Structures are given as C-alpha cells and as structure tokens.
Amino acid sequence: MGILIDKYTKVICQGFTGHHGTFHSKCDIDYGTKIVGGVTPGKGGTNHLNLPVFNTVIEAKKITKANASVIYVPPLTAAEAILEAIDAQIDLIICITEGIPIHDMLIVKQVLKNSSSILIGPNSPGIIVPGVCKIGIMPSNIYKMGKIGIVSCSGTLAYETSYQLTKSNIGQSTCIGIGGDPISGINFSDVIQLFIEDENTDIIIMIGEIGGELEIEAAKMYKNLKKKKPIVGFIAGISAPHGKRMGHAGAIISNINETAEAKINAMQDAGIEVARSLSEIVNITKKITKKLIY
C-alpha cells in the first residue's frame, strides 16, 4: 500500500467551500479519495459537493469518523485551523497553506509535541499513494503504482521526479511533500523511517534544498540505522549565494551546514547516493532497481 494513508482514510477539508478547497477536494474525490465532508465556520448544516459542511472539526469528526484533514485556509488563520484539528485528535493533518507566520507555527509546533497528530506541511503539496488515495494539490496523472518512496520539500521537483520515473515505467509507493517553510511538522528523518518500515517501498528518494539542517539530520540518522534501504538524494540550490532566499521561505543559507555542498557531503558520508540533477535521480534509481530482486 503505502505510508500514512490508504483506501480507508476518511478525509475532511478545512476551508471546504472556498475556491481552493472546492477545486482540490473535487479532484481528490475524482481520484477515489474518501472525502467525507468539510469545515467552514458559519456554513454548518449546509451541503457542498454533495457532502456535509460543519462549523467545527470536532463536530465533523464526530459525525463522519474522519481520521485525516486537509487545510486550505488563508495564512493568517491557518495555524488556528491546524490547532483545531490537533484539538479534535485528527490523526493526520495536511496543511497546504503557504506563508503562515513563523510565530504562529512556533505555537503549533509546541502543541504538536504533546499530541498524537501527525502534521504534513505547511506549504505542502500533500501526499499520494498512487492508485489508492490522494490528498492535496499534486497532479494525479503523473503517478504510477510501484515501489519507490519519494519525500521532498519541493512540490514541483517531486512532480518532475515522479513524472520521469513514471515515463520510465518505474512506479511509486508514496509521494509526500513535507513543505519548504522554516517550521513544519513531519520531516525527512520521520518519513525515511516510515519508508524503511513499509514493505511496499524498496527505494527512497529524498529531495532537499539549501537552508536548514533537516537533510543533514536525516543523513546522520540514516547512517546509524541497522535496518536500511537504498536512498537516492538530491539537493536543490547548489549555486545559490549565502543570505539569498531561493524560492521557499526556508531556503536561505544562514550557516555553513545549510549549504548544498555540506548536505551532499553528509549524505554521501551516510552511504546515500547523491544525484546532481533530476535526470540523474532517475538514472541512479534505475540502476538500483536492476540490482533488487522483486
């Protein structure tokens, strides 16, 4: 199957009746995802996309038995939406919203530590188990069922990698975008460990970028693991200058450990095979695939 979601996952959408919530919920429903309702304060008791709308997440969970929520609300209220989902004890929360104030996310991060919820994002494209369940904004037609797990902080780089793999007849088990904001929920280390325990994932692709030290932390964690699976790594922004933000809010080099070269060195030291281009990711994956016995 995959990690974190499956065909039984019941999803509610926070910001359900808005433009983005409507469009992407419909796409997910068309893909086969079990969207069971949505939350828009003040519109409780109505219907949208032939599904019930609730005023609160707690009410939505009680009625629909949802165990996942996807969030499409504006940045200034997105943290509040995440906190509401945590308070309702939603198992998996996917926040698509970009640009949530860092102060707000610091509060979310602290609350998250004392909860049982898993947060993907913010600024995440979502998560997909090809052919089974899709929650988020990724284009559904570029994926194929298979054995490659992809974790990325960049949505577009993950899309391109998945598309190139699919064109090469190499399928994916789960593709997850952890988001590119400075403060987020689930990270590379968390996802790699989930992939290693997933019997349907044989190879892991980790797509990182300059800024922060999550990739280095993941490399150190992986190096010390007894149980391993092959990882192909890629770091975007190798030519980016110090102090210059490149794309994501978290993609800014503030110290030597946040450069592309530092991350590449740490990954190679851990035994991760590092690609220097997106096309090389696919070529290395093909090479590893040929060595595996299915």
From TrEMBL:
Binding site for CoA: 17-20, 43, 96-98
PROSITE patterns cross-referenced by the UniProt entry: SUCCINYL_COA_LIG_2
InterPro entries: Cit_synth/succinyl-CoA_lig_AS, CoA-bd, CoA_lig_alpha, NAD(P)-bd_dom_sf, SUCC_ACL_C, Succinyl-CoA_synth-like
Reactions performed catalytically: GTP + succinate + CoA = succinyl-CoA + GDP + phosphate; succinate + ATP + CoA = succinyl-CoA + ADP + phosphate
Domain CoA-binding: 4-100
UniProt keyword annotations, A-Z: Ligase, Nucleotide-binding, Tricarboxylic acid cycle
Molecular-function annotations in GO: nucleotide binding; succinate-CoA ligase (ADP-forming) activity; succinate-CoA ligase (GDP-forming) activity
E.C. number(s) listed in UniProt: 6.2.1.5
Ligase in keyword set: yes
Residues noted as binding substrate in the record, renumbered to the chain: 159
GO biological process, one term: tricarboxylic acid cycle
Any one annotated GO CC term: succinate-CoA ligase complex (ADP-forming)
Pathway in which the depicted protein is active: Carbohydrate metabolism; tricarboxylic acid cycle; succinate from succinyl-CoA (ligase route): step 1/1
Keyword Magnesium in annotation: no
Residues the record marks as active site: 248
Family: Belongs to the succinate/malate CoA ligase alpha subunit family.
PANTHER family: SUCCINATE--COA LIGASE [ADP_GDP-FORMING] SUBUNIT ALPHA, MITOCHONDRIAL, SUCCINYL-COA LIGASE SUBUNIT ALPHA
Function (record text): Succinyl-CoA synthetase functions in the citric acid cycle (TCA), coupling the hydrolysis of succinyl-CoA to the synthesis of either ATP or GTP and thus represents the only step of substrate-level phosphorylation in the TCA. The alpha subunit of the enzyme binds the substrates coenzyme A and phosphate, while succinate binding and nucleotide specificity is provided by the beta subunit.
Subunit structure: Heterotetramer of two alpha and two beta subunits.
Name of the protein in question: Succinate--CoA ligase [ADP-forming] subunit alpha
Source species of the chain: Lyticum sinuosum
